[in-house]
Amino acid sequence: MQSIYRGAVSDRTERTPTQPTDRTADTIEWTAADAVSVIRVPRASDDKYRRGVLGIRTGSNTFPGAAVLGVDAAARTGVGMIRYLGPEVPTTLVLQRRPEIVTAQGRVQAWLLGSGMDAEQRTDAETSLVRSALGEGVPCVIDAGALDLVPESGARTIITPHAGELASLWGRAGVTVERSSISDDPVHWATATAERFGVTVLLKGARTIIAGPTTSATIVISVTAASSWAATAGSGDVLGGILGALLATNAPFLADESTDILSRVAATAAYVHQAASTRASGGGPITALDIAESVGVTIAELLGQDSR
Ligand SMILES: NC(=O)C1=CN([C@@H]2O[C@H](COP(=O)(O)OP(=O)(O)OC[C@H]3O[C@@H](n4cnc5c(N)ncnc54)[C@H](OP(=O)(O)O)[C@@H]3O)[C@@H](O)[C@H]2O)[C@@H](O)CC1
Ligand SMILES: Nc1ncnc2c1ncn2[C@@H]1O[C@H](COP(=O)(O)OP(=O)(O)O)[C@@H](O)[C@H]1O
């Protein structure tokens, strides 16, 4: 199996940061072989629970589509079961699209939280349900409208902001930073955020950057999109679903709270997302749902390239 260190150092930065980090980051570009090393193929001894159950609290009556997109992408990434536990409107739409989804509460191996939520419109009841998920001690993906709760999250958390959401996260912590500053130096800001908030950061963009919080794990990972057709509404909600499914299926390997593994899982989600976008696009325009629909065949092709 290829090492994550193969593919090597593309930019080594030593800088005086504007925020408290002095970490020197070696950035590697994630490869198909790296992604394959993280995708868990079901075995004869597996059943739906052994494969992993993903809990999803996403969507709102304002943004129900985000829930459908994330659920669809997670289902196509491959997971034993999805428990979708959201508001009424998205629940109806999710079940119309995917009757496989379970809407009853129960144990999960990972949570996907926040896509399609609006922190300012969230009810107290919804906030307390998200808090309760964060408090369960299972690995979590925090996206979009749950990012305000990052300071309350545990160690095994991956956050998936775009540059604007990351600027807001720092703003709430009392540090003003422009969205454009983050886009101009995503490696720095992903690293600084991971250290400041103690979470694994997947900073979205044409070049997605993944950084973990530990000072010992100095590797920062990049995933560079082959084209920009994926810059379309709901594309990030699809990424959240892919990541949630990969997190749930890798849950047995996350028990040691290794943040390095979280970075590998996050990078694989970004890789699968960009590969599925490329496959769906074929050089032309795509919708977010097109990306989700091509995830299964994209993973099959990745596994077919594996030389193990
Ligand atoms: N199908 C679904 O259900 C979908 C649901 N989605 C869900 O929506 C939620 C919000 O996520 P988001 O990333 O869209 O908004 P957000 O982070 O608040 O950034 C807003 C920034 O954009 C800017 N801006 C706005 N309009 C602009 C314009 N025309 N041209 C230029 N700029 C413009 C605006 O700037 P302003 O207008 O204030 O100057 C502000 O800076 C989230 O929960 C997500 O999951 C999405 O995934 C989409 C599909
Ligand atoms: N210029 C670009 N080229 C390629 N991919 C992009 C580009 N801009 C954004 N993306 C990708 O598209 C997705 C957008 O996510 P996000 O900003 O959360 O949108 P949404 O909230 O509409 O789902 C991310 O996966 C991001 O990496």
Structure notes:
- With 308 residues, this protein is of the alpha/beta class.
- It has a single domain, classed as UDP-N-acetylmuramoyl-L-alanine:D-glutamate ligase (3-Layer(aba) Sandwich).
- It contains twelve helices and ten strands.
- The chain has helices spanning 32-36, 48-51, 64-77, 88-97, 124-134, 163-172, 179-184, 186-197, 235-249, 259-281, 288-293, 295-305; strands at 12-13, 25-29, 53-57, 81-84, 110-113, 140-142, 157-159, 200-203, 207-211, 219-224.
- A ten-stranded mixed beta sheet has the order 1-2-10-9-8-7-6-5-3-4, with helices on both faces.
- Helix 3 (64-77) links the parallel strand 3 (53-57) and strand 4 (81-84).
- Helix 3 packs across helix 9.
- The longest helix has 23 residues, at 259-281.
- Mean pLDDT is 90; it is low at 1-23.
- Adenosine-5'-diphosphate binds next to helix 9.
What's the gist of this structure?
The chain has 308 residues and is of the alpha/beta class. It has a single domain (12-305), classed as Ribokinase (UDP-N-acetylmuramoyl-L-alanine:D-glutamate ligase). The chain has helices at residues 32-36, 48-51, 64-77, 88-97, 124-134, 163-172, 179-184, 186-197, 235-249, 259-281, 288-293, 295-305, and strands at residues 12-13, 25-29, 53-57, 81-84, 110-113, 140-142, 157-159, 200-203, 207-211, 219-224.
Descriptive keywords:
disordered N terminus; UDP-N-acetylmuramoyl-L-alanine:D-glutamate ligase; binds ligand NPW; binds adenosine-5'-diphosphate; ten-stranded mixed beta sheet; alpha/beta; 308 residues; 41% helix; globular
